[in-house]
């Protein structure tokens, strides 16, 4: 049995070329399409720093608000090869945990910290290069990836269980510095109800390849066990994750087995459509337990043991069951974001404050070629037939309250002119700038 990587061939057909959506041409373009709500908050449309600074139209990076879930679903439905790293699965778990903890921060406070309110954590080693008047934009020379990693050390010193940091930051054989930085920003975002952060300036799958080694995926399954300690809903969530993570591991033992192929063929299923909503089901919904506001999609009463299928406009969809876990469905447009954001306050030696935001998570898909002929290709042509999730981060200076309010008022007037009201979808609970993030999935 291979230690890793391992490739499973669930279907007998070849791959189709990935056509993608809205190819990103630079870091600003990627953020505008993957995280539009955050992009609207950027002051002067200027990103201070990012892990995506080297993106061009030739790097084949495509925007996605949740590239693990959306990438898996796209590869399944459009017939592309799929590559997954253990970090991709772990960061998807962390993004959901971030949503849950922020939505239940006060209920969980005693579990994590002994203080009330927000305790400020300050790092005092960053360096800024501030140009004089007329010198153009301010240039931040701090490595914000390293800043976030160091900040998690301070968090560990101020929570009840310091092992939380070691648990969150991945250490698989495939883990790189960027993965640790993204996980660190995720940790900062997850703990932002308990801490504020500042920096003082002294100066259908043709194939699925599981990357890494089998031991990485065993470690991933082991790490997830701690989720049950965070409350009743996380216990329900882990019950859905456990069979999936276990089958990631057994895929290394028997990649050719029909049982393995069958599992990967059940990653996603569409139902509905037409004039009504399109539903997404399959085990990928285990990574969509909470919506973006922390409300659970999963209701046990909707899936009683005696019900084996769900009906949508006369069509039935079998309820997927793995071991004792029964998997829910969600509307396709409700896939939760795979990224998180957290405010950071920069204070220079004069005491001047700059409000910034760190954003990190699964925000793109990388398309490559396997070198194999495309499915149904008459002349053996090759193309971009393989996709994998890409994670990264941005740091930007946020607009002031006044600037943001003015921008919202302008946007509201534009929407009134087009729709007759300041809402994108007739929902007065929405913000005037509440664009549909699923436009770039």
TrEMBL record:
Residues 425-441 have a biased composition (Acidic residues). Residues 422-441 are annotated as: Disordered. Pfam families: DUF4419 (PF14388). InterPro entries: DUF4419. This is DUF4419 domain-containing protein.
């Amino acid at each position: 049995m291979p230690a890793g990587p391992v490739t499973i061939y669930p279907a007998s057909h070849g791959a189709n070329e990935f056509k993608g959506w809205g190819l990103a041409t630079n870091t600003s373009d990627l953020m505008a399409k993957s995280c539009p709500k955050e992009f609207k908050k950027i002051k002067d449309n200027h990103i201070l720093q990012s892990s995506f600074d080297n993106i061009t139209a030739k790097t084949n990076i495509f925007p996605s608000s949740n590239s693990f879930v959306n990438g898996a679903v796209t590869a399944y439905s459009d017939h592309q090869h799929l590559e997954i790293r253990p970090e991709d699965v772990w960061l998807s778990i962390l993004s959901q945990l971030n949503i849950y903890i922020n939505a239940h921060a006060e209920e969980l406070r005693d579990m994590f910290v002994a203080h009330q309110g927000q305790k400020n954590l300050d790092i005092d080693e960053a360096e800024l290069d501030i140009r004089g008047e007329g010198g153009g934009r301010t240039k931040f020379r701090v490595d914000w990836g390293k800043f976030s990693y160091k900040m998690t050390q301070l968090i560990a010193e101020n929570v009840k269980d310091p092992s939380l940091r070691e648990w969150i930051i991945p250490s698989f054989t495939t883990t790189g510095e960027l993965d640790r930085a993204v996980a660190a920003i995720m940790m900062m975002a997850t703990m932002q109800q308990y801490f504020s952060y500042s920096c003082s300036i002294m100066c259908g799958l043709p194939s699925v390849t599981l990357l890494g080694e089998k031991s990485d995926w065993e470690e991933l399954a082991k790490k997830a066990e701690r989720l049950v300690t965070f409350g009743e809903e996380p216990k329900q969530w882990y019950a859905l994750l456990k069979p999936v993570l276990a089958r990631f591991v057994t895929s290394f033992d028997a990649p050719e087995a029909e049982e393995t192929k069958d599992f990967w063929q059940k990653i996603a299923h569409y139902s509905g459509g037409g004039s009504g909503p399109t539903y997404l089901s399959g085990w990928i919904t285990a990574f969509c337990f909470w919506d973006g506001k922390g409300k659970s999609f999963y209701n046990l009463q909707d899936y009683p043991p005696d019900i084996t299928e769900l009906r949508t406009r006369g069509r039935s969809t079998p309820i997927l069951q793995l071991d004792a876990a029964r998997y829910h469905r969600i509307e396709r447009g409700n896939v939760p974001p795979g990224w998180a954001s957290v405010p950071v306050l920069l204070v220079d030696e004069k005491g001047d404050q700059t409000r910034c935001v760190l954003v990190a998570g699964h925000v793109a898909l990388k398309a490559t070629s396997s070198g194999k002929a495309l499915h149904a290709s008459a002349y053996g042509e090759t193309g971009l037939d393989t996709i994998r999730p890409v994670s990264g981060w941005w740091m930007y200076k946020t607009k002031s309250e006044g600037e943001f309010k003015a921008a919202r008022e302008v946007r509201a007037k534009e929407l009134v002119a087009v729709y007759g009201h300041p809402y994108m979808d007739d929902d007065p609970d929405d913000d005037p700038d509440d664009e549909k993030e699923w436009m770039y999935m």
